[in-house]
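User: Structure please.
Assistant: Input sequence and predicted structure:
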Amino acid sequence: MQNKLKKSSTDKSIHGVCGGIAEFFGISSLGVRLLFIFLPGNLVIYIILANTMSESPRSL
């Protein structure tokens, strides 16, 4: 089964984008969030990803 990039339904601060990226690559979501905060131009990338990434199914 192919792993697809999706928003996280469990590790969600704003839209689940950073949590989804962290789950996809198997790294800490804190590290992904820090990259989005400190690297320039990532706000635009975050907004694009928040609108284009598909939602992951919610778990019970």
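The CA atoms of residues 15 and 50 lie 6 Å apart.
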